[in-house]
Amino acid sequence: MPSGGYKASDLPPLVTDKPPNVLIVGAGLAGLVLGIYLEEAGIPYQIFERAAEIKPLGAIMCLTSNILPALEQIRVYEDLLKFSKPCRRSTFYTGDLKLIGSSALKDEEITGYDRLLFARPELYDLLFSRIPSHKIHMSKKVLSFQQNHEGVMLRFSDNTTLHGDILVGADGAHSSVRQHLYKTMGQQGLLPKADNKNMNKGYISLLGTTGPLDPVKYPTLSDPACESNFMIGDGSTPYTWVTFTVPGNRICWNVIVQLALAGVEDDQFKTSDWVPQQNKKMLDSIRHFKTPYGIMGDLFDESPIEGISKVYYEDMLFETWNHGRTVLIGDAAHKLLPSTGQGAVNAMQDAVILANCLYDIKPTSFENIKFALQEYRDQRFDLVKAQYSSSQFMAKLQYGHTFFERILRHCIFNWLPKTMQMWQLAKESAYRPQANFMPEAPRRGSIPITKQKPSRRIQEEQAKKAAATAAAAI
């Protein structure tokens, strides 16, 4: 197999009626959801994860009606409800707890689903448990891959290799699959200039989740709905700190700093690797920040130190998502800021649409594979592009500290009519993809839903069956 990209061969193209063998690199949310859908579709797959053990960030996570029907379709939704809380209101304060404004929309009445908040590791564990153990392989770091019209070959750091029909890069923002693919395409003069840029780093965050707290001391923990609070520092304090109540009498917290406005005193915060030995100085410098529950330091003291993480808020929308037999999904293709809570949603939507396109591959041939992977990109790119812009806007609204961003926040919370908010919610909630080769989840909500693109394979099979029936009747 030639090194790098695919090229013509004297051998005839391989065509088979068997479904393609899919190699998924990355056992994050996108890779796991894709695996679950391929399991439902009867498409062979294996998942390879470079880490010996996945330890998801103990951060808060939000899922909306854009992905909850798909999770309901694969029987995950009911279990998700057991460890989540509906979020129906977010309140914004100054650093001194003066009210800026609030956002309160009853999503369920419009979309049919509550906006659900929970600690990220719990969803990860749930999805991981749905993958048969023999189909997921840990400590498998990909060094390189080769692809041509006959197949794709993965080479791992343990000197093993594996052949398949399709390679899926679901290995995150710093994807090794994407890096190797782009290097090869660059050498061939096929990579757009836009894909050579580095990801933007606009914010950095410390985040964690407390252990169980006393509901007497923290009464809002007893509320079945999530309490969401954003505290935004003044012009001399480029920080936003956020708290969310989650099941188990716990509070998820997040402290975000806008790097462009961070002073010299924040150099360690900006550049240090996050290790337990360095965390005390960082946390001590911000523990006095006020919250409705007291100071942030009270929450720090109740949070397991090993679960506190430092994360850059990076963003990038790559142009190239597929080439030959290789395709990128989730953060490997598009890294969104977490301000809209849509990063994980879009990653899982990628998995749903890619599963649909892979199901339509019949017979399995190089041409049909290339068509399916391009079809996936065509269906998703413009939608993700819109979400990318939205996440940047919402980051300014939630985390921004420039004069313009403060004026913007005041206008949105005080002058934007509720009818406009309702219209925007309905518009954003209309797209909710599901697998088109499975029975749909029950239709919920009162708003029109974006029409799902039907399975080409199922349509062709139905047409052939109808034609055969008609011929037999003659």
Automatic annotation (TrEMBL):
<dbReference type="Pfam" id="PF01494">
    <property type="entry name" value="FAD_binding_3"/>
</dbReference>
<dbReference type="GO" id="GO:0004497">
    <property type="term" value="F:monooxygenase activity"/>
</dbReference>
<keyword id="KW-0274">FAD</keyword>
<dbReference type="InterPro" id="IPR050562">
    <property type="entry name" value="FAD_mOase_fung"/>
</dbReference>
<dbReference type="InterPro" id="IPR036188">
    <property type="entry name" value="FAD/NAD-bd_sf"/>
</dbReference>
<comment type="similarity">
    <text>Belongs to the paxM FAD-dependent monooxygenase family.</text>
</comment>
<feature type="domain" description="FAD-binding">
    <location>
        <begin position="302"/>
        <end position="358"/>
    </location>
</feature>
<keyword id="KW-0560">Oxidoreductase</keyword>
<dbReference type="InterPro" id="IPR002938">
    <property type="entry name" value="FAD-bd"/>
</dbReference>
<keyword id="KW-0285">Flavoprotein</keyword>
<feature type="domain" description="FAD-binding">
    <location>
        <begin position="21"/>
        <end position="184"/>
    </location>
</feature>
<dbReference type="GO" id="GO:0071949">
    <property type="term" value="F:FAD binding"/>
</dbReference>
<feature type="compositionally biased region" description="Low complexity">
    <location>
        <begin position="465"/>
        <end position="474"/>
    </location>
</feature>
<feature type="region of interest" description="Disordered">
    <location>
        <begin position="439"/>
        <end position="474"/>
    </location>
</feature>
<protein>
    <recommendedName>
        <fullName>FAD-binding domain-containing protein</fullName>
    </recommendedName>
</protein>
